[in-house]
Design a protein that fits this description.
The protein is α/β, with parallel strands linked by helices and 189 residues long. Helix content is 38%, strand content 16%.
């Protein structure tokens, strides 16, 4: 039931976006371009809906475009995509502060779904002091979560650790195994 609810929520959101779009002509199968990060909790519902044929059953031509969170807000503002599942609140607020008309229509979670993963030397949070921590792109949900998490645990992202924008979850895992970073946050699959 949870999986079905997630798919229905995604479909509902896309249908609302389409119905509010003034560019559509009646009877046309609307093309909706959706910006998604690599396979994370943000993109699973869209992949399920696409693979199960739910979008086409609703008369939607959904084009899923893989892009980093840093690129997704820019693509949304440039109207290269119609919907973004990746942009963090920080990036959206920044865009709005610059006079760009953009809206957050739906929040799927009431808390971040991220796990802090560290190498063998990181046994407790205080062990992060002086270490390089990999985040997503600047302003990404991963970066915002890390800043808030560190602050809540008495560490400053600006003073106590070195934050490194590494990119996607896959990139951060590779950087962790290559020992370029000591820790990172990852969304559960």
């Amino acid at each position: 039931m949870g999986r079905r609810f997630c798919v229905l929520a995604s479909l509902t959101f896309i249908i609302v976006v389409i119905l509010l779009s003034p560019e559509l002509s009646p009877g046309a199968n609307p093309k909706v371009r959706v910006g998604l990060p690599d396979f994370t909790s943000s993109s699973v519902r869209f992949e399920i809906a696409r693979r199960m044929g739910y979008f086409s059953q609703e008369g939607l031509d959904v084009d899923i475009i893989r892009m980093s969170c840093a690129v997704s807000v820019r693509a949304l503002v440039a109207k290269s995509i119609d919907f973004d599942s990746c942009a963090g609140v920080k990036a959206v607020v920044s865009a709005v502060a610059q006079g760009i008309r953009i809206k957050i229509v739906m929040a799927r979670f009431n808390r971040p779904l991220m796990d802090l993963i560290g190498d063998k030397e990181v046994q407790k949070i205080s062990d992060l002091s002086g270490k390089v921590i990999g985040s997503g792109s600047q302003g990404s949900p991963a970066e915002v979560f890390l800043e808030e998490f560190l602050a809540a645990n008495g560490l400053s992202a600006q003073k106590d650790v070195k934050m490194l924008s590494v990119g996607t979850s896959s990139d951060r895992i590779a950087a962790l195994f290559a020992k370029r970073i000591s820790a990172t946050v990852l969304s559960p699959p």
